[in-house]
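$ fold --in a.seq
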Amino acid sequence: MNVRGWRWTYVALGVLLRVVLLLWGTWQDKHAVLPYTDVDYAVYNDGAHAMWAECALEQTVESPLFEAESDLFDEPSLAAHVRCARGYIPAVSRFVLQNDPLQSKESSSFPESSLFLRASRASFWISRPLFKAIASLGDPYSRATYRYTPLLALILSPAHAVEWAPPIWGKLLFALGDIACALLMWAILDTRASHHAARSLSQPWATHLPGLLWLLNPFPAQIATRGSADSLVLVLVLGFIALLLRATPEMELVGSHAIPGDAPEKPSERTQHDPADLRVADEVAWYGAAALLALAVHFKLYPVIYGSSVLAHLATYRRHAIRILCGIKNPSAFDVNILGIEFAAIAGMMYAVLNLGVWLFWGQPFVRHALLYHVTRQDPKHNFSVYFLSTYLAGSFDASSAPPIVQTLYSLAASPLASFVPQLLACAYVGFTLGGKDLVLSCAVQTVVFVAWNKVYTSQYFLWYLVFVPIVGVTLHFDSYLKPVFLAGLWAAAQGIWLYWAYRLEFMAQDTFVPLWLSSMLLLATQVYLVQSCLTAWESWRQRQVMAHAKSQ
């Protein structure tokens, strides 16, 4: 079977696996004591229901109780059950509909035969459906635990707006996102293989990694079919990387001296270019990558950590392009970094415009719940994080009567910045160190560091870095074929130990906080060891590829 045949076979089997899990989950939710569906899915759907059904025009602009926008919050009979989007644009839309010129009995200052009056009424008649749609937008943040972008509730709204839409509409979208992740993995692998001399990148077995480790892996399939929206974020992340590699191919994946065409040439052998004239290989992919990164950060804040990897990657790409096409051996720092500055400006502007647009529709609740909450969040419940115990103890400790030094230390320990700042600094260091050599590996290591040191994380957070494994796996060379199996078993065993103590705490009401925290430390150490082992295998792969390329010359 050829490569294309294998890929479509894996896609078909992956779809079948997810369909089976969806059917099984529907049965389990109806008949079993323990539901299959994740509690987050109920939160998503509550937000979607509020978005669609809790700001009906009959209860707002068409209600005799509604006279001004403030009545939605001050009038008890309205505030009790009406939950409208609090942005400026919906408020203006409700005001316009309330003062509908087509239904107004007041005489106009313009004569009825006036062309201006007829044109304005025709324009309003055409735009009235849009005003109605915007004015009836609900507030998903009326659901107390909804902490996501309102765009997520918006794309799940068909389940509540369309009669024939199935209740598992959101799960279907998430499962399709899971399949799309594998397609993007193959796209990235194909792009890298076409740009480099590393023979292992184009080996047939590279096709099997996304199929075996993702499409046929029950872990990501179960996460998606239980109702987690993480697959949508992963699609955006992989899409951004795929487009960025298409626009700016990696230049040092197997060492700069192994890149075809990178041998020094005499200035007379090729036309010299001005560094200011050099652009990217694909302009559409360039702007698309910035847009997808901005959208990914909007959906989840964590992809912002990839900024340092992108800057290092673009600096390397630019440096090699100037050396090859301009004949400048030591380009200036400005010429090297200008591309990274441009990408950061484009992505930052797109992110700002996107957030501004969402804020204009949903107002302050969006800022408070979808942005600030995740920066200041502290969860005292037990989770994989090594910070959970200190957060739990800090919540029950009264430092008001303690000495000043104790109060200061308590404030530092209880502050979200105590974990956030070191976490970001570590991610930035990894990005600037590895990003110029291997963009995908750098993003993968950054994600492991971010998750392992996060103040709160659960099992679905592992997907954030597992999605890179089928791509990175092609660039790893272990001393033994059993080493990856050993590492996977070690990672699973560390989780199993943690889950054992968590079960005794949660379901048997036993005081296992200390062994549970020690298990979190063990899981952290395991992830650090996994990263170190993979970096060693990656360096070994690079050396082998350089040697193989040198022998072929």
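$ fold --in b.seq
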Amino acid sequence: MWTWIFLFLSLTAVVVGAEILVNGSVAIAKKYKISDFIIGATIIGIGTSCPELVVSMVGAIGGNADIAIGNVVGSNICNILLILGATALITPVIITKDNLTFELPYCIALSLLLMLLALNFFSASATALLSRLDGWILLGVFAYYL
């Protein structure tokens, strides 16, 4: 019973937090004349990824590193198919030229980079894993993106 209560309260907190995050981000964007896309790709993107980061890190620390990979893959699938699909049902989603020429190819390239790192394409290891060096590479690419 308590599990269901905590689940409901947690989901409520996520919805309220998301509303606050979006409203605050829109206010920042308007005040500093920053495009909605930039705000979405940075502040909102990072804010919505924080719970996933915690889940992945707790799973990895607890010896369940598969949770991290499953979380990343599942999240990307949901973001692309569920979120964009549901949004497009409500209102058409305009995909700009910048989205087509930079952001979408960048996402594809990052997926390929992850696959190459996991397969140890750049090292001699026979085990498929992400090393600390791979972690630094991924964080460096993220910093470059920002």
